[in-house]
Amino acid sequence: MAEYQAPLRDMRFLLNEIFDAPGQWASLPGLSENVDPETADAILEEAGKIAAGSLAPLNQSGDEEGCHWDNGTVTTPEGFKDAYQTYAEGGWVGLGGDPNYGGMGMPKSLVAQVEEMVQGANMAFGLCPMLTAGACLALHAHGSEELKQKYLPKMYEGTWSGAMDLTEPHAGTDLGIIRTKAKPNDDGSYSITGTKIFITWGEHDMAENIIHLVLAKLPDAPPGPKGISLFLVPKYEVNDDDSLGEHNALSCGSLEEKMGIHGSATCVMNYDGARGFLVGEPHKGLMAMFTMMNYERLGVGIQGVGAAEASYQNALAYARERLQSRSPTGAQEKDKVADPILVHPDVRRMLLKMKAHTEGSRAFITYVAQWLDQAKFAEDAEFQKKADAMVALLTPVAKAFLTDRALDTCVIGQQVFGGHGYIREWGQEQLVRDTRITQIYEGTNGIQAMDLMGRKVVANNGQFFEYFADDVADFITENQDDPALEGYIQPLASAIERLADVTEHVINSAGDNPTEVGAAAVDYLDLFGLTAEAYLWARMVKAAKPKADNDTSGFYTGKLKTARFFYDRLLPQTVALAEGIRNGSDSMMAFSEEEFG
Amino acid sequence: MAEYQAPLRDMRFLLNEIFDAPGQWASLPGLSENVDPETADAILEEAGKIAAGSLAPLNQSGDEEGCHWDNGTVTTPEGFKDAYQTYAEGGWVGLGGDPNYGGMGMPKSLVAQVEEMVQGANMAFGLCPMLTAGACLALHAHGSEELKQKYLPKMYEGTWSGAMDLTEPHAGTDLGIIRTKAKPNDDGSYSITGTKIFITWGEHDMAENIIHLVLAKLPDAPPGPKGISLFLVPKYEVNDDDSLGEHNALSCGSLEEKMGIHGSATCVMNYDGARGFLVGEPHKGLMAMFTMMNYERLGVGIQGVGAAEASYQNALAYARERLQSRSPTGAQEKDKVADPILVHPDVRRMLLKMKAHTEGSRAFITYVAQWLDQAKFAEDAEFQKKADAMVALLTPVAKAFLTDRALDTCVIGQQVFGGHGYIREWGQEQLVRDTRITQIYEGTNGIQAMDLMGRKVVANNGQFFEYFADDVADFITENQDDPALEGYIQPLASAIERLADVTEHVINSAGDNPTEVGAAAVDYLDLFGLTAEAYLWARMVKAAKPKADNDTSGFYTGKLKTARFFYDRLLPQTVALAEGIRNGSDSMMAFSEEEFG
């Protein structure tokens, strides 16, 4: 297995040469005081070292050993506890956190790169700080000042970790029907009772305390999703002097046996009158939890990019070393028994498909992250509104499109290895097993698609979509006469027009037919993602072209050629997706139950 | 997990209502004496019972327990040995074997259905009889009369099993560079020395003897694939009275740790001067082995269909039971806390994509199987030539297209379960892990695509393709005015024309550019497979339409609606694939090595 190397070159290209991140940071008062280009670069460099040196070496052993459950106690795989301590002490958990509570206040466009490295090196491990950071965000946005002061500093420093407790055995997507109850206590706290399942890092030995954000229903809760409240429930009670008190009335009942991410604990959590604290207003817990969920959804998209990058690195190294058959144009390495498989067109096709989607996905994450920074720090209200809309629109695409592409990429990366890809020691099959969860948790990709199509497109009559389309249109207008972009502007213009037409088509059909949204959703999200990638590849071409002539590293010429491959061989899928959507929902909804078989 | 049920209704529909298998069997002298409709139906019924009652119950436990290696001895998971004995005693191993040596002489169109049931119930188990039957086929076609008489009867009865030993650590796809040596002994036998890896069921405790077909090089072998010979190497020597003699000088060095099919043993086999017997002519072993490989390739396609069917059954059962959220058209089951997820358009989309490809794939297998029966038994030489060409053309499509679709289907089937799909107990994640190997072994799907595009299309200048295109054209001509096929004939005609155009395009470009074949191959195979499925769905519409009016079971109306879904939502992909292929190989081959990263 190739050793994981953080893709710093590509990250710097995105931040400095595509998105002018330093310029953006300098322009935003809330950021300019925390970050400058040198600091950012040092952070990238250091994160790369930790990912490659400390986390990646535990990835395979963590998968093999898994977490252990013994009478409610969870022990992590060998090395995880030490690695976590190093990680926490480096300040990485609070990298994007509010400095007023001990966070480092770094912009998401930078934090996202760090997150990709961590997830690419060790997804099972990476889930723990990812959940902590998301819990902090929800607590920061919705918690009382008292709760924030009590919990955020310890969580930012990683001494305490966070977990999100939503799912119950009978309630996954449909949180409106959860049964966990919260009974008010006399002291203003609540007594939480119920069972939660699929709680990632719900119990473990890496942090001193675990802060659960738990969805539950108050006695006077209205039925459905409008009757859900959010509670902070610590594993150990926290005394007034911030020391740890008694073990709360909660326990981990068991760990799930699952397909992958074995290094992480997936817990059944039982609450038996555990003491918790209301976060935000009663019955508005789902909205508060969405602050965390949206963070995690982008985080899951980032996990996909990380895994795809790792799979590509392994596959490329193998393709350079593995000697098998001769090039169709004649032997390339005559002194060897065969040529490296990198010479074969179909191996190149596989690698380029991996590279095109992985780098396109990284660009997409950075693009969304930059909008997030605008939404958080921009001072112009109108612009902030647009930024909010863009984040809302793009988050489900980041979650679902990037993880769908990531599974494809990992499957292809496994395929490059032939039979060896199916064997554990090479690591490629683990990446497939691990990545598979990213399409499922934090709202399945089908749910993401429905969120995009229904809430983010149809519900606002395409207004959010217009923001995105305008962004692309501006780029096209600015660059339509640029010879560097010949062969890109025209197909990009067709693609965005196709997407706009389909968007309008679905908005129009949805009025008459409530099933149209669900029937179009997944294909629409794919179409959206491919079009967005086409836009970002065009931007990469624009940046790379002037530097390609004097490029001896192959970085810029490689960018140009990957873009060409994307436009020639992957973008045509948009035509098929658009046609499928236009054919409508009738063929799905016409089925009676028995006709399914 | 739903209990596996053999899809007998659909198999009977294919055999009796689409392909008139009984008519074909009656018309072929080699078959008419062995099979009649009643026998065939009894065989289907009985196979369904064994698959559901004896093999499926061992699928999950076999995955969990796996095979055990101890100092060269391999022990199978609990229950496998008994199940194998029942299976062998039922005569199932020799179902398609030559009656002159104890086989049952059944047609492939029937045997393929039985194989699907076995593989759908338990793929790890199914590999053992599948390899035995393939080894018998190669031995039957190329072995001496003495070898055939000595080995075939015991193999057909399953007392001895078969294995194929091709791969070596440095030689997978590129068999020309194998190092295993065969030294002639004075008695006409050979002494085999070398190491083989990835040998499925190479060692185990279910059969009394294991007959390895081993590729090795004779001392005077020319280099490359033309210097490979095929040897039969039994685990135990066979005495003149057919009793078992000494353990041959071969041993299982270890088992691979792999992603799935844990119930099967994947062996490293060491040969230290083991006594073997030449099968066929010296240096022509690869061709002889291809008899087995082509059998296994179709068999692997069948594995895909079986797994896809199992995943669909599980997903459908879950979608009917799992209550979550309300239908977009309003609550359907008001007395329940939520509606079954089957009401949601996107869940229907998932199930229909699974159903469309699984039933389309089963039809494809039956179509190929029927051509195989023609190739074997037809008396008209011209027609037999066409049948041979069709089998050659369609086999790589069956292997690769059906297994690619099968992985998609199993991934979707897992997705229907949401988070529960990632958990072992539900069985869906095992189907994904198991099915993943079908895209890799017996020649990766990339190799299948190259075989199709290079050897089966370009090399004969499209002649084999013409046979297929004529078959479709005949159907179109016969049915173009049939109102039952309105909405199908025109898109089918477009699809076959698109495929024919692309075929011609690649044949023409391949002359000038040797990389074009490899660059087009995978997309071409997809395009071919989708077009073939469209053809078969049209045939199913033709058969189902007249029966749909009086259909209370939903079977025929379900067929019609699934066909509509396929044409509306899946067939459009052909447009994108064709465009990608036309864009050529330049974007792949332009890359220098360093530009990959």
UniProtKB/TrEMBL annotation, chains A, B:
Q: What is this protein called?
A: 3-methylmercaptopropionyl-CoA dehydrogenase
The chain positions of domain Acyl-CoA oxidase/dehydrogenase middle read: 163-272
Assigned protein family: Belongs to the acyl-CoA dehydrogenase family.
**Boundaries of each Acyl-CoA dehydrogenase/oxidase N-terminal domain copy?**
38-158
The cofactors required by this protein are:
FAD
Which stretch is the leader sequence? none
- GO MF annotation terms: flavin adenine dinucleotide binding; oxidoreductase activity, acting on the CH-CH group of donors
Which SUPFAM superfamilies does UniProt cross-reference here?
Acyl-CoA dehydrogenase C-terminal domain-like (SSF47203), Acyl-CoA dehydrogenase NM domain-like (SSF56645)
Q: What class of enzyme is it?
A: oxidoreductase
Reactions accelerated catalytically: 3-(methylsulfanyl)propanoyl-CoA + oxidized [electron-transfer flavoprotein] + H(+) = 3-(methylsulfanyl)acryloyl-CoA + reduced [electron-transfer flavoprotein]
Q: Give all residue intervals belonging to the Acetyl-CoA dehydrogenase-like C-terminal domain.
A: 468-591
The family database entries (InterPro entries) matched by this protein are listed as: Acyl-CoA_dh-like_C_dom, Acyl-CoA_Oxase/DH_mid-dom, Acyl-CoA_Oxase/DH_mid-dom_sf, AcylCo_DH-like_C, AcylCo_DH/oxidase_C, AcylCoA_DH/ox_N, AcylCoA_DH/ox_N_sf, AcylCoA_DH/oxidase_NM_dom_sf
The Enzyme Commission number assigned here is 1.3.99.41
Domain Acyl-CoA dehydrogenase/oxidase C-terminal per the UniProt entry, residue ranges: 284-452
What does the function comment of this entry state?
Answer: Involved in the assimilation of dimethylsulphoniopropionate (DMSP), an important compound in the fixation of carbon in marine phytoplankton, by mediating the conversion of 3-(methylthio)propanoyl-CoA (MMPA-CoA) to 3-(methylthio)acryloyl-CoA (MTA-CoA).
Instruction: Identify the keywords attached in UniProt to this record, alphabetized.
Output: FAD, Flavoprotein, Oxidoreductase
Keyword hit for Chaperone: no
